[in-house]
Write a structure and sequence with these properties.
- This protein has helices spanning about 1-5, 20-25, 40-50, 65-70, 115-130, 145-155, and strands at about 15, 30-35, 55-60, 80, 105, 135-140, 160.
- The chain is α/β, with parallel strands linked by helices.
- It folds into two domains: about 1-130, Rossmann fold (3-Layer(aba) Sandwich); about 135-163, no CATH class.
- The strands form three sheets. Strands 3-4-5 form a three-stranded parallel sheet, with helices on one face.
- Helix 6 links the parallel strand 6 (about 135-140) and strand 7.
């Protein structure tokens, strides 16, 4: 939530499976929050959380049903940036979601390297100025297998393996 705000984003909707995580996202700048329940009403809840604001970008680290719900909520000409698949590696995608002018799906690696490099530099500049904080959870390197499993389930913070 902090990164888009630092970049000038207007109305940000946080969506997550964990209500406690959503509380933290609201404290860090999200304007609204939606619990991902896996039900069809999630798309409606996202549109409701947007209020009169357009939903023009979706950043999706989950894929699967949560991504499909998000894809049913945006404004015309929206872009979904797909960055992960912690909810599911596959999706059953109805054709109507991708009709012309409705939604463009872009993989994070589709962005040219120079743009990614500049975005990362800008992000780290914001972090260095204290505009972005990152929750970390140090774990011993010996626990790498457990850390991997925790990451797959959705870690509550960035996992940092230490010697």
């Amino acid at each position: 939530m902090q990164a888009p705000k630092a970049q000038g984003a207007g109305h940000i909707i946080a969506a997550a499976r964990d209500p406690q995580r959503l509380q933290r996202e609201l404290q860090r700048g999200a304007d609204a929050a939606v619990v991902l329940t896996g039900h069809d009403d999630v798309a409606w809840a996202i549109r409701d959380a947007a209020g009169h604001h357009e939903i023009d970008m979706i950043i999706d680290p989950l894929w699967g049903e949560p991504a499909l719900a998000a894809m049913r909520s945006p404004s015309r000409h929206a872009r979904l940036i797909q960055i992960g698949n912690s909810a599911s590696p596959t999706i059953k995608l109805p054709a109507g979601v991708l009709r012309p002018d409705l939604l463009q799906i872009v993989g994070v690696m589709d962005v040219p390297i120079d743009e990614r490099r500049e975005a990362y530099r800008t992000l780290t500049d914001h972090a260095a100025r204290g505009q972005i904080t990152v929750d970390v959870m140090p774990l011993p390197l010996a626990d790498v297998a457990a850390a991997s499993e925790q990451q797959k389930r959705g870690a509550p913070a960035k996992l940092v393996l230490t010697p």
